[in-house]
Structure formats: C-alpha cells, structure tokens
Design a protein that fits this description.
mainly alpha
Length: 210
C-alpha cells in the first residue's frame, strides 16, 4: 500500500501527538523540580518514565500499523511482543492469550531494533555506551521508589536525579533520531532536515552519531 495512504498518515499523526504531549510534561517537570523536595523528586522520576513508557507503547502501536500497510519484515513472534501478548494453554488444553511483560530495558532494545529492522535507513541506538548504562541504572532507581521494601528506598539523592536525567536523555535523544529518521521515509529528507534543526535548536545540541 502507498506510503501516503490516509490510514497510514493517521497512524503517523497519532504517534507524533503522543510523543509531543509526553515531551511537554517532561519539560514542564524539568522546569518545576525543587531539588530539596523528596516528594517532587520521586514525582519527577515517575513523570520522566511516563514519557519513556508512553513513547515505547506508542512506537509499538505505530509499528503494528506499519505492519498492516507494508511488507515490513515483522514476524509472528515480533507481532505478539509488539502487542504485549504471550500464549499458553489452559487446563482444557485450549490456547490462552496472556499479557507478556518485558522489563523496560528489554522493551527499549526490542522496540529500537524493530524500528531499525523496519526502517532500514535509521541509526540503531548505541547500547554500548554510558547513556545506555545510565538508562539501566535509572530504571533500577525508578523501580526502587515505585516498589519500596524499606523506608530508605524512598530516598532520592541528587546523584540519583542526575543518573535518571542522563538515562532518560539518552533514551529521548535516541528515540528522536530514530523517529525523525522513520518519518523522513514518509515525508522526505527536507522535512527531516527542518525537524532535526528545530529539535536541536530546542535542546541546544549538535547532532551526534547513534
């Protein structure tokens, strides 16, 4: 089916709107954070991971839409994981669909690799550097404050905040590069260059290699 199909374009706009709204919340929390408030520190971390979780889900929904319109090389197992589904048998031997939960780092690697596989021109995120290491540590911090076992688990230090910010920045920058790349395949290189320039102007950074 043609890349300009109306349903396909609607899927693109849905993905863009979700990412834009989650980015606004991310930026709003960044401006309002009071470093000495433990309550706000925990809320800030949860807000950052709402951006991660929401854009991951949106990316997978977008990939499922792409699979409907294009021969994108998405296999049966890939489709099940994009839908967050697993399969088993009930007591009567009937196939039963079950929710399939991936850890956040697993989910990120899977989703980014699927984007890379489907949109061949995209740079694959760097999973061997400090950013990825910070992201995994950030997930551990988020899990600690979300599922505390001791009072001390609630405590968020300035170092924790920096680790989470560094990790989520790596995620956001990696997703931005991959997202701009996939959308350029639909809208053309001129759109990509303009959007990338606008994004880099907002974050005050020069392009870096994925």
């Amino acid at each position: 089916m043609a890349m300009n199909d109306k349903k396909f374009q609607a899927a693109v706009r849905t993905f863009e709107r979700l990412a834009r709204e989650l980015s606004k919340e991310h930026e709003a929390w960044s401006r309002r954070l009071k470093p000495r408030s433990q309550i706000l520190r925990r809320a800030y971390i949860r807000a950052l991971f709402a951006f991660v979780d929401g854009t991951l889900f949106g990316s997978k929904q977008f990939l499922l839409k792409v699979h409907q319109f294009l021969d994108a090389g998405v296999g049966t197992g890939d489709t099940a994981l994009l839908r967050e589904e697993g399969y088993g048998l009930d007591r009567q031997g009937e196939v039963q669909v079950r929710a399939q939960y991936l850890s956040t780092p697993e989910n990120v690697r899977f989703t980014f690799r699927m984007l890379y596989r489907v949109f061949r021109k995209l740079p694959l995120a760097n999973f061997g550097g400090k950013g990825w290491a910070a992201f995994r540590e950030a997930v551990a911090i988020r899990n600690r404050i979300t599922h505390p076992k001791r009072v001390v688990d609630f405590s968020v230090s300035p170092k924790d905040i920096k680790t989470v910010e560094d990790g989520v920045t790596w995620y956001r920058d990696s997703l931005a590069r991959q997202s701009y790349g996939l959308l350029s395949g639909i809208r053309g290189d001129a759109w990509l260059k303009k959007s990338t320039a606008e994004h880099l102007a907002r974050v005050g950074r020069r392009p870096t290699r994925a």
